[in-house]
Write a structure and sequence with these properties.
Rossmann fold, 2 domains, single chain
Length: 388
C-alpha cells in the first residue's frame, strides 16, 4: 500500500508526541514525588555522636521528622542501673546527639524517657543518661507503675490482651523516636526496637504471662515511632538484658542503624549476633512481619552505608534493590544494589527528559523527509496523461 504524505506526517507526529509525552510524564511524576530515601542506614567509622548525626542525615535529615514547635519524645533504654560499658542501656552520647538535633530542628520540648526497673535515681546516675541529656538541653523522665501516668490503648481483636496501658507522655508526643540498644535477652533472644517499646507500657508482667512475642508484635502496630535509631556501638552478646554479673561478653560493633521500619531495623541488627543471624530467627520480629508491620528480608531493602567521618550524603532516589551489605563490613565496600555515602545517585529523574530532545530531532527529520517526498512527487499537468 502506498504511503501518502498525510499518513507519513501523521506517523511522525504520533511518534514524536508519544516520546515527548513519555518524557514529560516521567519528569512530572519525579518532580511531584519529591526525594526518596533509603529503607535503612548503617552509620559507622566515627564516634557515637558522629554516627548518630550521619545516620539521621542520610535518612533525610532531622527536619524530615521534627518540625518547629513540636514535642519530641525519645524512648531510650536506661532501665538498669549499670554504666554504659556493660551495654545494658542506650549509649548516652547517641541520645545526647539526637537531643541536639531535635533542638536544632526547632522542637519545643525534647523528652527522653523509659520505664525503669532498678531504682530511678540509680538508673539516671549510673547509666550517665541524665547528665548527657541535660547537657544537651533535653528533659529526662523515669517512670514506673503509677496508673495516672498511663492511658488505655486498644489492641487488635483476638489477641490475648484487649488493651494495654501506654505512657501518656508517649501518646501526647508529636514525634516519637525509638532509640534502643542492641543486646541479648533471655526471654526473646534479642531486645531491639520493638522489644524496647515495652518500656512505654505499665504492666510488662502481663506480656510475659501471656504471649510475649505475639504481644510485642501487636504493640508495634499501635505504637509506631516516626524514627528508629538502634545503638549498636556496644552490643551485649549474652547475659541480657541486665548483665547483673557485669562479666557478660560485650562486642564493639561501632554502628548506628536508622530506619522508619521497625522490622527492617531489627532484622538488620539481628545479623550482628552470630547465634541469631536473621530476623526470622527471633519470634517477635517474625510475628511483626507476618502482621505486615515491616519488611524482614534485608536483601529486599535499599540500604545505605555511611562513613560518619565524611560529609553525610544527600537523599538517594531509589536505586535498584540488591543484596544487602555484610553487617561485618567496617569499610564502605558493598555489593551491587547497595548505595554508599560515595555511591552514584540514580539519574532516573533526569533520564526522562532525554525523550524531549529526541522527540524534537525525530520530528525534524520526519519533516525533512516529508518535504523531499513532496518535492519529488510527479507534477500534474493540464493533460492528465502527460508527465514530465
Amino acid at each position: 500500500m502506498e504511503l501518502t504524505r498525510r499518513d507519513f506526517l501523521k506517523m511522525v507526529s504520533y511518534a514524536g508526541g508519544s516520546l515527548y509525552g513519555a518524557g514529560w510524564l516521567r519528569g512530572t511524576r519525579a518532580l511531584w514525588a519529591g526525594p526518596s530515601y533509603p529503607d535503612l542506614v548503617v552509620a559507622q567509622q566515627g564516634s557515637p555522636a558522629e554516627m548518630t548525626r550521619a545516620a539521621v542525615q542520610a535518612l533525610g535529615g532531622i527536619e524530615r521528622f521534627v518540625k518547629p514547635g513540636q514535642k519530641v519524645v525519645i524512648k531510650a533504654n536506661f532501665s538498669w542501673a549499670n554504666p554504659p560499658k556493660l551495654a545494658t542501656s542506650t549509649n548516652p552520647e547517641v541520645v545526647a546527639a539526637l537531643v541536639q538535633l531535635c533542638k536544632q530542628a526547632g522542637a519545643r520540648r525534647t523528652v527522653v524517657l523509659d520505664h525503669v526497673i532498678d531504682g530511678l535515681e540509680a538508673c539516671l546516675r549510673e547509666t550517665e543518661m541524665r547528665a548527657a541529656v541535660l547537657a544537651a538541653g533535653g528533659e529526662i523522665r523515669g517512670y514506673q507503675e503509677e496508673a495516672s501516668q498511663y492511658q488505655e490503648t486498644n489492641l487488635e481483636p483476638g489477641v490475648p490482651l484487649r488493651s494495654v496501658q501506654v505512657l501518656k507522655e508517649v501518646k501526647e508526643a508529636d514525634v516519637l523516636i525509638n532509640v534502643p540498644i542492641a543486646k541479648h535477652h533471655s526471654s526473646t533472644r534479642l531486645t531491639l526496637s520493638m522489644k524496647n517499646l515495652m518500656g512505654v507500657i505499665r504492666d510488662r508482667g502481663a506480656f510475659h504471662a501471656r504471649d510475649l512475642s505475639g504481644l510485642i508484635a501487636e504493640l508495634s502496630r499501635v505504637v509506631r515511632p516516626n524514627l528508629i535509631l538502634i545503638d549498636a556501638v556496644r552490643i551485649l552478646m549474652d547475659g541480657g538484658p541486665e548483665n547483673r554479673s557485669g562479666t557478660a561478653p560485650v562486642a564493639q560493633a561501632n554502628k548506628v542503624i536508622a530506619s522508619t521500619d521497625p522490622v527492617a531495623a531489627d532484622s538488620y541488627a539481628a545479623t550482628l549476633f552470630p547465634k541469631v543471624l536473621e530476623g526470622k530467627n527471633v519470634s517477635h520480629i517474625l510475628k511483626a512481619y507476618q502482621l505486615r508491620v515491616g519488611e524482614i528480608d534485608i536483601n529486599k531493602l535499599q540500604i545505605m552505608l555511611v562513613n560518619a567521618q565524611e560529609v553525610a550524603p544527600p537523599p538517594v532516589t531509589s536505586p535498584p534493590a540488591g543484596k544487602a551489605p555484610s553487617p561485618g563490613d567496617e569499610g564502605l565496600a558493598a555489593p551491587p544494589g547497595t548505595t554508599t555515602a560515595i555511591g552514584t545517585p540514580d539519574l532516573g529523574v533526569y533520564r526522562g527528559y532525554v525523550y524531549v530532545p529526541a522527540a524534537g530531532i525525530l520530528a525534524g527529520l520526519g519533516l525533512i523527509i516529508a518535504r523531499r517526498i513532496w518535492l519529488s512527487r510527479p507534477k500534474r499537468l493540464a493533460n492528465p496523461g502527460e508527465n514530465v
